[in-house]
């Protein structure tokens, strides 16, 4: 009797280790979130692609602290049918042990996103790429491609986008402005005005524009866009990708010049485009921002902080930074996905998922300790 009790107990423990949280159909923002391997989901600054009945979550695959001073070994992937339970699919883009490549251990790979190209049948991954030993100076974007959603992805190259191209919303008069950084004191009102007017855009015209925090967005007509913090993180660029999604078409706009937006996440509802973003305070959270436009390459209008609730939550975006807004397949419902960064142990950074709700026709985010998808049945 004693032995059979022991046996049942061991089987139960083994089951819970392999399928932790089985049957728990809830999101608990900020809690550890074990996947099928029993470990906390290790994809950060990521995004989700829905394909053939499953959700695929890609993100920064972080290594435990001080792993030979290397913070990541590439882009990780998990998959799920229901958004609550995730299967670890492995590392989709592995940083190779190749010192001749820009993609080499010790480089920074952040905020990766994957999209599917219906015309070519290929999966395309873009990511923020900083070069080994250069901090955040390089400000490049990298691209990789695969025939299979989970990978392995083949790294193509990294670049600074739109070299030799002016944005669609930058006038001839602005293009010929001769003002340079030298004559300006950093952060002075004159400097801010000059930055807003494209000081860094002009500086980087020939070599290509800086690309740091990034996301991708595919519109209903199949056109895809690469959206990133540019111009020393002071201005966002929305750039159209080529039809195969592997390059920049040369069409792009500056968005909210001088407003210093990072962590952009784009979604579309009833023909209108929305963006959640953050300010620029590194790993520390700051008040969230939102904006709206009726055209993806149009006039983006700021809507203010989308967070609702107590002061602390509103000031810190629930202690998180946006990374993606997930549209639940086949619905007009959306989930805010954010990272609660733990810079001292990035692998343990927490996932903050909250429902996007609507207030006077505008998207807002509220805190829930625990919630599930049934919340959306109350939405109109
Ligand atoms: C944040 C950015 C993160 C990461 C971090 C490094 O501003 O959103 O993705 O780059 O800085 O300090």
Explained architecture:
By secondary structure, this protein is mainly β. Helices cover 11% and strands 38% of the residues. The protein contains 5 helices and 20 strands. It has helices spanning 2-18, 172-175, 189-196, 199-203, 311-316; strands spanning 44-51, 54-62, 72-80, 87-94, 108-117, 122-130, 140-146, 154-159, 214-218, 224-230, 235-241, 248-255, 262-269, 272-278, 289-293, 301-304, 321-327, 334-340, 350-359, 362-365. Strand 17 (321-327) and strand 18 form a beta hairpin. The relative contact order is 0.12. Residues 13-21 have low confidence and may be disordered. Bound molecules: beta-D-galactopyranose (GAL). Beta-D-galactopyranose is lined by residues 45, 110-111, 213, 262-263, 280, 282-283, 321.
| End-to-end CA span | 56 Å
How many strands? 20
Residues in β-strands, percent: 35-45%
Decide which structural class fits the backbone: mainly beta
Helix content: 10-25%
Question: In this structure, how is the largest beta sheet organized?
Answer: 4 strands, antiparallel
CATH topology of the domain at 32-159: Tachylectin-2, Chain A
Number of helical runs? 5
Bound molecules: beta-D-galactopyranose
Strand order of the largest sheet: 1-2-3-4
Runs in which pLDDT lies below 50 for 5 or more consecutive residues are: 13-21
**Secondary-structure element string:** HEEEEEEEEHHHEEEEEEEEHEEEE
> What general form does the structure show?
globular
Average pLDDT: 94
């Amino acid at each position: 009797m004693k032995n059979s009790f022991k046996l049942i107990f061991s089987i139960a423990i083994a089951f819970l280790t392999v399928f932790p949280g089985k049957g728990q159909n809830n999101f608990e923002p900020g809690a550890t979130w074990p996947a099928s391997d029993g470990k906390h989901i290790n994809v950060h600054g990521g995004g989700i692609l829905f394909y053939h009945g499953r959700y695929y979550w890609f993100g920064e695959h972080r290594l435990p602290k001080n792993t030979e001073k290397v913070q990541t070994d590439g882009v990780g992937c998990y998959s799920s049918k229901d958004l609550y339970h995730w299967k670890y699919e492995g590392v989709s883009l592995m940083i190779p042990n190749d010192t001749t490549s820009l993609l080499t251990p010790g480089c920074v790979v952040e905020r990766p996103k994957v999209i599917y190209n219906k015309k070519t049948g290929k999966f395309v991954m873009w990511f923020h790429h900083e070069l080994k030993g250069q901090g955040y100076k390089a400000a490049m974007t990298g691209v990789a491609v695969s025939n299979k959603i989970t990978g392995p992805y083949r790294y193509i190259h990294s670049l600074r986008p739109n070299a030799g191209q002016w944005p669609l919303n930058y006038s001839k008069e602005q293009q010929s402005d001769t003002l340079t950084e030298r004559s300006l004191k950093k952060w002075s009102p004159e400097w801010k005005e000059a930055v807003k007017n494209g000081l860094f855009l002009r500086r980087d015209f020939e070599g290509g524009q800086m690309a740091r925090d990034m996301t991708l967005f595919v519109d209903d007509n199949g056109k895809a866009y690469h959206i990133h913090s540019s111009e020393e993180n002071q201005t966002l660029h929305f750039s159209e990708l080529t039809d195969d999604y592997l390059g920049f078409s040369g069409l792009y706009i500056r968005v909210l010049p001088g407003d210093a937006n990072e962590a952009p996440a784009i979604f579309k509802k009833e023909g209108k485009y929305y963006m959640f973003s953050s300010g620029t305070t590194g790993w520390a959270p700051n008040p969230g921002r939102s904006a709206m436009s009726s055209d993806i390459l149009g006039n983006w209008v700021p809507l203010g902080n989308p967070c609702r609730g107590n002061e602390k939550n509103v000031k810190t975006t629930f202690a998180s930074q946006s990374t993606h807004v997930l549209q639940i397949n086949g619905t007009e419902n959306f989930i805010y996905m954010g990272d609660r960064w733990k810079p001292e142990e990035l692998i343990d950074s927490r996932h903050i998922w909250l429902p996007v709700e609507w207030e006077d026709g505008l998207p807002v985010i509220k805190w829930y300790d625990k919630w599930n998808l049934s919340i959306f049945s109350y939405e109109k």
